[in-house]
Description:
This protein is about 30% helix and about 25% strand. By secondary structure, it is of the alpha+beta class. It folds into 4 domains: about 1-115, Rossmann fold (3-Layer(aba) Sandwich); about 115-200 and about 300-320, Arc Repressor Mutant, subunit A; about 210-280, no CATH class; about 325-465, Alpha-Beta Plaits (2-Layer Sandwich). A 4-stranded parallel sheet has the order 2-1-3-4. The chain has a 4-stranded antiparallel sheet with strand order 10-9-13-14, with no helix packed on it. Strands 19-20-18-21 form a 4-stranded antiparallel sheet, with helices on both faces. α5 (about 100-115) packs across α6 (about 125-140), α6 crosses α9 (about 310-320) and α12 (about 375-390) packs antiparallel against α13. The longest helix is centred in the C-terminal third of the chain and has 22 residues, at about 415-435. The two termini are about 35 Å apart.
Amino acid sequence: MSISKIMKEGSSFNNGNEEVELVSFAEPDEINAQTFIKYNGVVLDATDADAARVILKRLRTFDLNNIYLKPVFLISHDGVKDATLLALSDGEIDPAVMSKIGYRMKTLQDRIGRLELIKTESFEMYVMMKMLRFLFTREMAMEPVLDSCSRVGYSYPLVSVNFDREDQHRVFGIIDIAERETLIEGTFVDRIHLCDKCFGGFLNFREACPKCGGPNLKAEDLVHHFTCAFVGPESDFRKHDGDDMICPKCGRLVRHIGVDYDKPATLNFCNTCHEKFQDPKVRAFCFNCKNDTLVENLVERDVKSYRLTSKGEHAAIYGMTISMKDVIRIPGLVDMGLFGKYIEYEVERFKRAARNGCVAYLHFVNFYDLYVRGVTKEKIFPEIIEIIKGSIRPSDMITYLDEATLLFFFTDTPFEAASIPVERLKANLLKLIHDNFTGFEPNIETGMAPISGKFSLDDFVGKITPP
């Protein structure tokens, strides 16, 4: 058994009887797949938590199973306290008992060896598969980590390690898909509120004027004088010298609360627009995007811990397809394989006799952000289906790349004419989203290419989706 220990220059380690190779790096960019591929596991010096986090994140973002699933154990002179490090690793070990990790490594390698080679449809599915496989090989739950560096205040390092900070909200979309497909099951941990524009969690909650929305308010108690039944702000009772309260209506001295008067409510005064009101509106100001909105518009979501289901274990081993075909039933929808064969047939027909035909795509760039808002496929897809039905002919053919991307083949249709149904479909989808999701700006891309003797569907799709 060979174990690699990644250490800082000048650090020392008593390796006992284990076969250990010491490896150190001057820069994180020196870390590559070849560094790790030959080792059965890694023992990472986490004394410098920042440096260890860079190495571990780089390791967990590799594409190959035997790299990103590599067993990684942590050691530290002061104990590992960084929750992200612990979530991405296989735990902290005592250097004095290195021999005890042998059985654990063998178990992990056996479970990693059961995984089939698979290809995913989209980046979201790729990240989801990495999450499922890590949970399967570790036989563990995925716990949320309190993270002040995360835009939402929590992170799931197994998933969020694949995203830049500004895209962290997409983590929830991927987890939601896995939960709704019953690949994982969640247990409630906390409930958070996010900005409805950027999904940030760094919010300032404040009472605001219902007229102008400004937060510059002054609150004052209302006083109810029992004797004459006058009700007014406390300042009206103190419009004279001294500390005594005198009723502005009857002129009597008001002394004892509960005997002479009570304070039934609070009156608010806006220093900006001078409005007077009893009940202020509660608004949330986002420090990230400067969005200022009523709290009822915030995106509310539950934070949970997650475990694999039996279905999730099967998916982790053999793969899965989660796509629009599970819920869409529309004329002309075919799977990608048949769609590709039909395009090949049309290309050959074009070579023999030029014919009109056009391939188009529609990609909903931020479709998965709708999942962050708690939108399910069952809620939105039926209306999308109706829009698609009204935008295409029965003779046209449709397939999907993933939940967010559709491909169309318009038969016997000139290039210019094909743009009409595509743009109509885009416009109708934009209207659907604007009418139903306040504060959410959909990003929908479209594109087309005419069928020719040199047309390649693989090249067309390659330009749509990034590698």
